[in-house]
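S1.2 Input.
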Amino acid sequence: MTNYIIDIGMEVHLELATRSKMFCGCAVVDPTTAKPNSAVCPVCCGLPGTLPVINKNAVALAMRAALALDCQIAHTSIFARKNYFYPDLPKGYQISQYEQPLAVNGSLMIHTCQGDKVIRVHRTHLEEDTGKLTHVEGEDGSYSLVDLNRAGVPLLEIVSEPDIHSIDEAVAYGKELRLLMRTIGVTSGDMEKGTMRFEANLSMRAEGCQELGTRVEVKNLNSFRAMEQALIYQVEQQRKTLEQGKKVTQQTLGWDESLGKTTSQRSKENANDYRYFPEPDLPPLIVEDSWVAEIRDSMPEMPEEKRARYRDTYGLQAEDVERLTEEPSYADFFEACIAAAPKLTPQRIINWMLTDLLAWLHQNSKTMADLPISHKAFTDLIELVENSTINQNTGKDVLGEMLSTGQSAGEIIEERDLLQISDHTLIEEMIEAVLEENPDEVQSYFTRKETIMHWLFGQVMRKAKGKANPQLVKEVLKEKLDQRRH
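S1.3 Output.
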């Protein structure tokens, strides 16, 4: 059988985090809550005689993205009209950039189980979004409703070279790009709301062949699971086509989650089909070197730099570093904890944060912004455990109560009388009582059944209602058992 090489180039559309649209003053609204067509004006509706004006903040955010990707920012870029008809495109054309984009020739490092790899970025350019169609099946037949709230929202399109050669690499690229763009604050990256949308251009060629195969564009990839499943399906389809000696048809495909397969939407257009020409109502976009330098100076720490700092400064394991930096809010919370409790080791904070805290977030479908407790309240709890005010298991219970009620650890401990018992005499008395109550188990321990030790420990902790110092209980219990052995 012939071995095939997969070639994937990604086109990613980011909704830039501006308050107003790309070429008018209409507000950018949440598509899931705003009333349809409540944020529109003659400009974004495409009425005759209206004139667009470039959103300066959108350009600034686009340059931040370009700099983060190590792109070359053009001193002069040109907006163009991209002509095509869709019901949700009110002007009958989209204002975009084509021959002279904002930035070119960047790169992004990705991490996979096969190692690190650099994916080249071909170009990044500004454009406006279209509206949204809602398809309705009614008693009188099917029809579509048009909502133009999204029309004119600023988009940044990031186009990679076809350097991605596996599905794992495609997903890794998507995740790393999303993390980078959210870290620098250019987009919310909420894929479920459509603020970050992926399209994959996929082709296959026989091993040893240098010429790229015929590509198909797979759209509607609004989650990383959808991306993975769609590419798996399409790779298998192309493999079958090529093995049968047939040619792949160039086309645009949509991913249908319910059917679990790609479906044809239209034959793939080429650039000539869009009849690009310079937008006559907009002058060239001139970017001064001083503005680029100002934005470069304002850039935050990049994810790759943060990973290296966490490894080198705090000595964190690679797995912990990856989990900590997969969401910017996780790293921000960790940094705040370090500042609030300098006596705690970073690893101790990580141990509590990446287990109990993140588990609560995931189980309750919450984000860091939804936490009912502050980073200071969180580290106060960890310090109470470290100082033996309460034991580890009690600490976990207290954290759960804090997350449910928003109360402080001190308030919960006082209300429920949870202070740890570390009185040596009291612990001795409880252990003696347990040993007297369980003579058969004590005898089993003498016959080398060491597992009985764990059972007796549990009985002592139950008698102490979980509040005894576990380390002290273990030490005294072993001491008492050894005394009885002799």
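S1.4 Remarks. The chain has three domains: 4-294, 301-416, 424-485.
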